[in-house]
């Protein structure tokens, strides 16, 4: 599974960063970015799904390989 952030939709609420700091971070431009793009474990995939659910703008995308 891969996780990405649609920066055109992202409103920088930071829910992904605050709730899943091992997966997301703010970059030098204060935009949310993904630390681990390819999720290989069930725990990682669950965290990404949870982050997608709490994202107020729906900017988090998940894709299966």
The CATH topology corresponds to Alpha-Beta Plaits
Strands, count: 4
Widest beta sheet: strand line-up: 1-4
Count of individual domains: 1
Strand content bin: 15-25%
How would you summarize what this structure contains?
With 65 residues, the chain is an alpha+beta fold. 28% of the residues lie in helices and 22% in strands.
Molecular structure report:
The chain is of the alpha+beta class and 65 residues long. It has a single domain (2-63), classed as Alpha-Beta Plaits. It has 2 helices and 4 strands, in the order βαββαβ. The protein has helices at 15-19, 42-54, and strands spanning 2-5, 24-26, 32-34, 60-63. The strands form 2 sheets. The protein has a two-stranded antiparallel sheet. Strands 2-3 form a two-stranded antiparallel sheet. It is globular, with a radius of gyration of 11 Å. The chain starts with a strand and ends with a strand. The model has no long low-confidence stretch (mean pLDDT 94).
Helix-strand layout with pairing:
Layout: E1 2-5, H1 15-19, E2 24-26, E3 32-34, H2 42-54, E4 60-63
Antiparallel strand pairs: 1-4, 2-3
Summary keywords:
65 residues; alpha+beta; Alpha-Beta Plaits; 22% strand; globular
